[in-house]
């Protein structure tokens, strides 16, 4: 069977907008501002920038390079590095499957809230409206006892639009959608920020956000938070950028593209911080309380705090439209990229054409999403699954991938040479050092810090049984599924060779480090979210 021609991006701009659209998601809007506020305010920008330069961008360049070099989705691309490494790729595919099932639900909520904004239908108690009237959340997390039509139908509509975009392909579907939606997102959010800056109390909110607490830089938790925000906001660690880069041309600029996408993502995060805290400053002044009493994140910010602000400001409905449309666009472009990883992996594995792959794979994800997350327990399933799949899925998979590539395969010098052949910004020994040492240490530190928190107390106050099923069970299940999928034999005649000429597919026999470097070596998701319980408490979550 002859090898099928792989799809290509229509232009570098199209690829960059798609990469930026994947990186800019819900976490940019509702996670970064709160992380900065809690971890030193303006001083947080220093560890954040260091994390971006020493870990985020190097890992982003690595994923671009692997994707463009092998022109395959994660499982097939990693298999070219070494056959056992495909396990990591399938693990990432399983992670994307899980994330897509619930990420789409938040997008559906945002769509509904666009309509709710017009008449400010949440009334005087946005929190009770969210959990009671809208989500009809069960009092006790557990088994499904009913479904919520107000969530089911917009969620179904979201999935239909996503599948249509994916069915049109990389150039006619994903690229065109991002060419339209990313400029719209920037315009809408810029208008929203300008409006927020004119509100009474906006200066107080910005002062609370950006006033630096330099003493915070001596706390390890602040640096962990900075590295965590970078990994979860750049869409690295779960295969998206490997997949997107696989559609690049042979002479595409890799390092330059990574710099543009990385700094565009961070710029939007700072813009989001300005808009969010200017709005919270208005809310604090209106209620006569300090900013720290209204500062929140995630669901509490988007679906409780902002509706409260909207109801108390002139022409609030217009502000609400801008905010929730921006939230929906940011979520949509990220969701498309997440599902594309699964679709592309199935295509590469089976030889299936795009439309059947989208309908079968995307349809399965949509069915699981509708069955679980349009139920009265949907918000609780989302909360636990999101936290554990981020902390022990995305971040852990990124850590394993970097360690395997840098220390087991010692493949970084070869990948560096491939990237430098067509990149405007050449990768030097600094790239090898950061990926071989700094990135693994940062990710490892995050793992230890997160596990310590898990063992101190149950996440979100959930019971052991619930967390075993929908928290730890989901994270461990993704790894098990990845291992099982990797055991299925590859039988396609159009498969790329397992290794390049002159290099074996197994691990080297020498010690770590090569080429005199000494060392060689997460949107993300994502994005982070936070949930607000019915009694008003706030819990943190990853993307």
From TrEMBL:
Residues 498-543 are annotated as: Disordered. Residues 503-529 have a biased composition (Gly residues). It comes from Streptomyces gossypii. The chain crosses the membrane at residues 12-32, 44-66, 87-111, 147-168, 180-202, 222-247, 259-284, 317-343, 355-374, 389-409, 430-448, 468-488. The keyword Glycoprotein does not apply. This is Sodium-dependent transporter. It comes from the Bacteria. It is a multi-pass membrane protein.
